[in-house]
Design goal:
Strand content: under 5%
Largest sheet: none
CATH topology of one domain: Tetracycline Repressor, domain 2
Structural class: mainly alpha
Order of helices and strands: HHHHHHHH
Helix content: 55-70%
CATH architecture of one domain: Orthogonal Bundle
């Protein structure tokens, strides 16, 4: 099977469809089957973990409406301009309702970051889980990561912005970046041992590739108008596949 045939057959058609800017971030309960023992991705939030006080159907809807309002705000504004009053003005509930779910705006950001982390790990699962032909699975994982970033671009930009003003959120953001670096570098080393990847410095390559992705995701998807996801996917898969497996651009479908 050729590299990326999976995407040609199934995924990219979906990415080309018209989308709206309606908030579509959903807190994820999914857990990828990936070994995190050597990473820092199990980051801790301030104090005890966030737990909604009243898990009724109505409270779930209220909490989600707060999250949706935050994403809507981030399309056109940086985190530093957000206040509880501005946030709750975008919902149908009172300002006081915010504190039934979150201690402050930074905890809201930590909750969003935690769910985003889960979605990123799930997207990267095919390659990190070492299932199937490596180059093809890497292409599939990169495509899924682009889809996650396309949906959550303003959130990624807002979290990076907020991390500059709050130490604990900065630590959580860096744990996401550094933890993913660790997972990628470990996979590179495993493939070096099996002769699939040449004698590269795994840690430096992982950081370079991941920071490239983060910058491109924020640049292309952080504000309106968003770029076409296929453009970003083609760019990053070209760099990743050529760097790790020697697959040239002319060999890509």
């Amino acid at each position: 099977m050729s590299v990326c045939r999976y995407v040609n057959d199934r995924s990219m058609k979906k990415a080309k469809q018209k989308t709206t800017d309606k908030p579509i971030f959903q807190r994820s309960a999914r857990r990828p089957k990936i070994d995190l023992s050597d990473s820092d991705l199990g980051h801790k939030t301030r104090g005890k973990a966030h737990v909604a006080r009243d898990r009724t159907k109505k409270s779930d809807h209220t909490e989600q409406s707060i999250i949706d309002a935050a994403i809507t705000f981030f399309w056109d504004n940086p985190f530093r301009e957000l206040s509880v009053q501005k946030l709750m003005s975008g919902t149908s509930v009172s300002r006081a309702a915010f504190y039934q779910y979150f201690d402050d705006l930074y905890q809201l950001m930590e909750v969003l970051l935690d769910s985003l982390t889960q979605d990123i790990l799930l997207a990267a699962g095919p390659w990190l889980g070492d299932e199937g032909e490596p180059a093809e699975q890497l292409s599939v994982s990169l495509h899924s990561l682009v889809e996650v970033a396309y949906r959550n671009g303003p959130l990624i930009r807002a979290i990076a912005d907020a991390a500059a003003t709050d130490l604990k959120l900065e630590i959580a953001w860096n744990q996401l970046l550094n933890g993913f670096d660790s997972l990628v570098s470990n996979r590179i080393r495993q493939h070096q041992e099996s002769g699939l990847i040449g004698p590269l410095d795994a840690d430096s390559i992982a950081i370079a590739l991941n920071r490239m992705d983060a910058y491109l995701f924020i640049h292309h998807f952080g504000r309106r108008p968003r770029s076409e996801p296929e453009v970003v996917w083609n760019a990053i898969r070209c760099v990743w596949l050529s760097t790790l497996y020697g697959v040239s651009a002319s060999e890509l479908p």
